[in-house]
Write a structure and sequence with these properties.
heterodimer; A: 252 residues; mainly alpha; two-stranded antiparallel sheet; 6 helices; globular; B: 186 residues; 89% helix; rod-shaped
Amino acid sequence: MAQPGTIDPIHQFEIQKLVPINLFGYDMSFTNSALWMVIAVAVVTLVMVYGSASRSIVPGRLQSLAEIAYEFVANTLTGVTGREGMKFFPFVFSLFMFVFSANMLGMLPGSFTTTSHIIVTAAFAMLVITVVLVAGIIGHGSHFFGLFVPSGVPGWLLPFMVVIEVVSFVSRPISLSLRLFGNMLAGHIALKVFGGFVAALLGAGVASILAPLPLLLAIALTALEFLVAFLQAYVFTILTCVYLNDALHPGH
Amino acid sequence: MRRLLTPALFLSSVLPALAADAEGGFPPFNAATFAGQLFWLAVTFGTLYVLMSRIALPRVGAIMAEREATIETALAQASKAQAAAEAEAQGLELALAKAKANAQAIAQEARAKSAKDIEGKRSTVEKDLAAKMAAAEASINETKAKAMGNVQDIAKDAVGAMIEQLTGKAPTAAAVTKAITSARGE
């Protein structure tokens, strides 16, 4: 824990137990992380389930929001995979909405960003790759592994190509999880650091004249972080769509 | 660039200090919290997936499909109504043109008929007038002839009387006539 009086930009990622729970010898405590996951799900549910409850032909505000979200994800998915990708729509939609609302809720002062923990992003990435593998093997059987054998390559080069393809496939979940994790972590640390500069400069006598400079930067960074929060959710989703497209249409 | 560098620089200065932290270092890498996070992630994401796939998405999809169907029906109805209106307007125009032509024909016919009528009447009247004029002329001539005859008789009578006065003896009618005729004949 940081000493009192100093600004610790890592403190915001600390997991705190709210309700200690122990299941099967594992620590399953209800933590601040779990709380914000629940809040994220609650927000998405409010918009999507409560918002669409009236089923109006002319939508209200909340229903418009629900429809925009629906169309946005549906267009993203069908744009990459075509119509047949719609069978993954609930999965991709849940993924996008969870990551997006978790990222956005993380922008609230004092909140906890669940997607800034690598275990969460890695779990999502593994889930995506598992879905891709299972869907690909169910849909195309052994044909699916043609994904690793590019066509039109001379025979002597083929082993190398297969190795490269396998490495690229295996690195997908790693890059997928690290990208989201890194962006959320770095952004929040940067925000906290610049916020800390403001506080430090204010307490530094004459130098406090300079305090507005990091404040302006912090404001600009906040705007940027909102963009990043959306963009990373979108990137995560569109890459998921690209990988799902491999499962639907293996073979280059 | 600055944005990328700042956290990196910061981390390099902060992490060593954190490594000594009793809580187990950098929180995202604290494996003790992994099981709990995974558990709650599974619970919350599973709940979200069920809510979305069972309730929200079918409902929103149905709303949007219904809206599309409503709009399509309305558009189809509107275009049908428009076509009907256009057809009706065309029919009206046709009827109007027909009526116009009809009216023109009737007017033409009426004009021709009235002209013929007038011509007939005029010729009748003219014929009538000519006949009357001829009759009047004939009657004038007749009257004139009669009058002339009477004049001759009067002359004969006057001649007979004059001669009777002069001679005391009435001449015969034949002698008078003969004398008058020879006088008139010069």
